[in-house]
Amino acid sequence: MIELLSQRPNAMKWQKYSADILPLWVADMDFAPAQVIQQAIAEASQDLGYQLPPEWADEQVVRWLASEHNCHIEPSWVVWQGGVISGFNTALASVCQSGDEVVVPTPTYPPMRQAPVNHGARCVEMPLEYIDGIWQLNLDKLANQLARPQCKAMLISNPMNPTGCVYQQIGEISKLCHQHNVLLVSDEIHADLVLAGKAHDSALHYNTDHLVVLMAASKTFNIAGLATSYMICPNAKLRKRVQKAGAGIAGHANVLGVMATATAYQAAKPWLNEVKTLLTNNLSVLNRWQETQDSLISYPVNATYLAWMDWRQLTDTPYPHLLSYGIALSDGAPFGAPGWARLNFACSSDTLSQALQRMQQAIEAL
Ligand SMILES: Cc1ncc(COP(=O)(O)O)c(C=O)c1O
C-alpha cells in the first residue's frame, strides 16, 4: 500500500511556494518510500563511517539491469556516484576543452543545457520534433553536427525529461556517435518509469565503446534526497578517464544511498508496481481533462511522471499566470521552450483534481 506524504515540511517541492499554491513542479513524488528501503536505511545507519560499496550492491544493479532492461553488464562497469547531474558533468569534463561542442537535444532538463558551459564547451541545442506521434531528432542534421571536429559529446535524457517519452532512435544515435568518435552520455534516470507503450531502449544495447550511461534508483523509488546514482561505462580506459575527471571534486558515494538503491532493486519491486498503477491512473485523469481543452496542446506521455504542455495559443507566459491561480508547474523557458510548462503528476488524486480545477479557471480567465 502506497503511503501518501500529506505533510512535507522539509520538501523543496512543498516549501518553495506559499501554502496556498499547489506544487506540481520539481521531479519527486508525494509518496513515502517503500518500508523495506526505510528499514535498510535504519540498519545501515548503525555504521556511518567511510565504507566501500559492498559487492552485493553491484550485483543488485547487474541483476536489475538484466531483468528490467535486458542489459547485460559486468559488475566492474558500475561506478557509484553522488547524483546524475554530477555524473554527466564529470563525463563531459573528461572529454571537453574550451571551444569544444556538445550536442544537447531540446527541450531538456535545464542542468543539461548548462553542463557543457560548465566545462568551457558550447551547448549545441538540437530541437526534438514531434513527427508521426514520436519525439525525434533530424538524423541528417545530427550527423552533420557530430562530424564537426570540435564536437566531443552528446548528452541526452532517455526517457526524455520534459516530454515524458522514451527515445525511439537510440540505435541510430549511438551509431552516429560511434562513427564520429563522439562520447554519448545517456542519462537514464527515469528508465524504470515506463507507464505504457514502447519499452525503454537503453544505450547499453548498442555500441558500448564511446558510452557513459547514468542511472539511479532515485526517481524510481523516490529517494532522490540520498544523492546516489551510478555510472555504467563498459570501456575500461574511458571509465578511468571519467573517474579521473571527477577526482577531488565529485566526492564518494553515500553509504545510505548505496544500501537503499541495492535494497530497492532487491525487494521494492511490488512498491514500484503499485506506484506505476497510481501514476497510470493519474495520467488517465490528466489525459481526459486535456482532451476537453481546445487551445492547450498536450502530447502523449509514455514514461516518467511528467507531462509537457504547449500553452502558446493561450499565453506566452503560462508559468506566472498559473501561479496567480494557485498552481506551480515548471516553466518551460529554462528547458529551452518558452510558452510551455511541465506538470508533475506524481501526487495524490486529490491534489491532481484540485490542480486541474485551478488550471481550468486559469484558462477561462485568458
Ligand atoms: C533527467 C534528469 N537527470 C538528472 C536529474 C537529477 O539527478 P540527481 O538528483 O541524481 O543529480 C533529474 C532530476 O529531475 C532529471 O530529471
Structure write-up:
The protein is an alpha/beta fold and 366 residues long. Helix content is 37%, strand content 17%. The protein has two domains: 117 residues, Aspartate Aminotransferase, domain 1; 231 residues, Type I PLP-dependent aspartate aminotransferase-like (Major domain) (Aspartate Aminotransferase, domain 2), CATH 3.40.640.10. It contains twelve helices and 15 strands. Strand 14 and strand 15 form a beta hairpin. The protein has a seven-stranded mixed beta sheet with strand order 2-10-9-8-7-3-4, with helices on both faces. Bound molecules: pyridoxal-5'-phosphate (PLP).
Task: Reconstruct the topology from this structure.
Blueprint: H1 12-15, E1 22-23, H2 35-44, H3 55-69, E2 78-81, H4 84-93, E3 101-106, H5 110-118, E4 122-127, E5 129-131, E6 134-136, H6 139-146, E7 151-157, H7 170-179, E8 183-187, E9 211-215, E10 229-232, H8 236-246, H9 255-267, H10 269-291, E11 297-298, E12 306-310, H11 318-324, E13 327-328, E14 330-331, E15 340-344, H12 349-364
Parallel strand pairs: 1-13, 3-4, 3-7, 7-8, 8-9
Antiparallel strand pairs: 2-10, 5-6, 9-10, 11-12, 12-15, 14-15
Helix pairs in contact: 2-9, 3-9, 4-5, 4-8, 6-7, 10-12
The structure holds pyridoxal-5'-phosphate.
